Amino acid sequence: MEREKFIIRQISVFSENKPGRLAAIAKALQEEEINILAFSIAEADGFGVVRALVDKPRKAYEKLSGIGFNVAFTDVIAVQMKDIPGGLYEIARILGEGMINIEYCYAYSGKDAAVLILRVDDVDAAISTIMKGGGTLLESSLFQ
Amino acid sequence: MKCWDPRIEEMPRDDIRKLQYRLLKTLVYRLYSFSPFYHDRMRAAGVHPDDIRTLGDIRRLPFMVKNDLRDNYPDRIFVAGQEDLVRYHVSSGTTGKPTVVGYTQNDLNNWTASLARGLSSCGLGRGDVLQVSYGYGLFTGGLGLHYGAERIGTTVLPTSVGNTERQIELMQDLHTTAIACTPSYLLHIGEVAEKMGISIKNDTNLRIGILGAEPWSETMKTRIEEWLGIKAYNIYGTSELSGPMFCECTEQKGFHVWADLAYVEILDPGSGEQLPPGEQGEMVITMLQKEALPMIRFRIGDITSYDDEVCGCGRTHPRVHRISGRVDDMLIIRGINVFPSQIEYALMAIPEVGQHFMIEVDRKGALDDMLVKVEVRKEAFSDKITDLMAIRKNVEHRLRNTLNVAVNVELVDPGSLPRFEGKAKRVIDRRKI
C-alpha cells in the first residue's frame, strides 16, 4: 500500500528512573554505530519510556534487548512543519479537524524544516487526513 | 493494680500447675477423640493421651504451625460445628489462602476475660475512656480490645484505624484516657496532633497506651512515654490464640500469659528443647481452653524469653518479654503480618510481571512504607505509559487484596532484580524500631 512508506518504526525502551539509564542506552547505540535522529523521554512515577527514531531500528532492538532492556517497536509518522510561527498549528489543525487523536508527539527542528513525530490512535486515517489536508509526510526511507 | 479475677491471677504456683495439667489432659483426650487432624498427628508422633502423665509430658506432643490452618482451609481442623460458633475472624495466611479462626461463646468469654485481666493490670477500669484504634472487622484487634474493655466497665470509643485528625478531635472532645493501637500509629497520631497545634501530653487526658500488633523496642517505648506523657504497655497476641490476648501490668516487665488459658514454652531453635527462664528462644504456646480451634504447641515464629518469678504486682503467672525477632521471614507492616511467600503467590497470577521481586521497607514519618519492585515482562512491555501505569496499579491492587495492607509497586527492568540460589533474601528492612 502507498501509505506503508510513511510508517516509521520507532523504538521504545522501558527505563527505570535512575541515573545512568539513558547513558546505558546511548552507549549501546554508539557501540553499534546507530544514529539517533530524534528522541524523547516520557516519564511516569518511578519509570520512563525512551522513544527514539534511529537509522537502524532492527539492530538497535537486538542490541538493547541483548543487554536486558525491554524494547518494542511502535509505528509513528513524521510530518514536515514550516519552521515559522504557526507551523505546528497548521498540522495540529488538520489532525483535529480530521478527528485524529494524538497519543503523543515530539518534534525536532532540522536544517531544512521542522519535523513533528506523531503517535496516533489510527495511523492509516492520520496519513489520509494529512495528505488530504495538504500536509507533507516524510517517508520512512528518509530515516531508516 | 487491682486484680480483675484475684482467685486466678494470684493463684499459688502449685495450684496453677495442677490446673494446667488437668486442662492439658482434658484437651488432649478431647482432641484425640474428636479431631481427626490432631488424632493423626498424635498417632504419627507415637503418643497417646495416656502418655501425658505430667505437665512436662507436653514435650511429647506434636507441634502445630500456621500452615496447618491454611492447609485445612477454611474450617477442617475446627473441633466445633458451625452451629456452635458465634464468630469468625479471618487473617491472611502465608500464601494466597487466608486463615480462618472460629469462636464458640466460651472462646469469646475466655478471650474477653484475658483482656479484662490484662487491661485491669495496667490500670484501666471504670471511668476510663479507651479509644480502640485497631481495625474492626475480620482483623481481631478492634473487636478483641472492644469486648475486653467493656467487660471492666471502661467506656469504649471504637474509632478503628485511619482518619487521624478526627481521632485526635474525638480524643479531646470525649476525654480519651487510653488508646489501643500499634506503637507506630500512636507516634503518627502524635505527629499529626502537633501539626494541628495540639500536644498529646498537655492538651489531652491520654495517660495509657495499649500498644502491640508489631514489634517495638524499649527505646521506642521510652520515646512514646516521654514525648506523649503516657505509660506505654505492650500487648501481645495472634489470631490463632484468639487475637490480642496478653498485656503488660504496671510493672512493665513483660506481658502476663494467663496460665489457666495458655501454656508457654520457649524452645531452643536448634535442639527444640525447652529453655529455662531468661534465655532467648522460639515461643510455643498451647491454648488450654480453646474449644472451636484448639492450638497445641503452636509455633508462632516469635523469638523471646520468659520470666517465671512472681511479679511485683502480685500476679503469679509467667511473663514473656518483648519479641526480639522471628524465626522466619515474616514482616509486620502497620500491624499486619506479611510473608514474602504471599507476594510470590500473588505475582504468579499476574502474567505481565515476572516472579522475581524485592521488598523494601522504610518508616516514613512514623508509619511503615512497603515498596515491592517487580520486573515487567518483555511480552507485556508497551510503549504507552498508561498501559504500564495500569500494570503497576493492577499489581498494587492484587497485593493489597492478598496482604490486606497498602503497597507501593515499582516497575523495574527485566533481569535487574537479584536472583537467588538457595535461600532468597528478598527483604530490605530499613526501619529502626
Specify the helix fraction band of chain A.
25-40%
Task: Quote the average pLDDT of chain A.
Answer: 92
- Look up the CATH topology of the largest domain in chain A: VC0802-like
Q: SS-based structural class of chain A?
A: alpha+beta
Tell me the total number of β-strands of chain A: 7
CATH superfamily of the largest domain in chain B: ANL, N-terminal domain
Instruction: State the CATH architecture of the largest domain in chain B.
Output: 3-Layer(aba) Sandwich
Relative strand content of chain B: 15-25%
What is the helix/strand order of chain A?
EHEEHEHEEHE
Our count of helices of chain B gives 12
Shape of chain B: globular
Reading side by side through the largest sheet of chain B, how are the strands ordered? 5-4-6-7-8-9
Outline:
Chain A has helices at residues 21-31, 57-66, 87-97, 123-132, and strands spanning 8-16, 36-43, 47-54, 71-81, 102-109, 114-120, 136-138.
List the helices and strands and how they pair.
The complex is a heterodimer of chains A (144) and B (433).
Chain A: E1 8-16, H1 21-31, E2 36-43, E3 47-54, H2 57-66, E4 71-81, H3 87-97, E5 102-109, E6 114-120, H4 123-132, E7 136-138
Antiparallel strand pairs in A: 1-3, 1-4, 2-3, 4-6, 4-7, 5-6
Chain B: H1 6-9, H2 13-34, H3 36-45, E1 64-65, H4 66-71, E2 87-91, E3 99-103, H5 105-121, E4 129-132, H6 140-151, E5 155-157, H7 164-173, E6 178-181, H8 183-195, H9 200-203, E7 208-212, H10 218-228, E8 231-238, E9 243-247, E10 255-256, E11 262-267, E12 281-287, E13 298-304, E14 306-307, E15 319-320, E16 325-326, E17 331-333, E18 336-338, H11 340-348, E19 353-364, E20 367-376, H12 385-403, E21 408-412, E22 427-429
Parallel strand pairs in B: 1-13, 4-5, 4-6, 6-7, 7-8, 19-22, 20-21
Antiparallel strand pairs in B: 2-3, 8-9, 10-15, 11-12, 12-13, 13-16, 14-15, 17-18, 19-20
Helix pairs in contact in B: 2-3, 5-6, 7-8, 8-10, 11-12
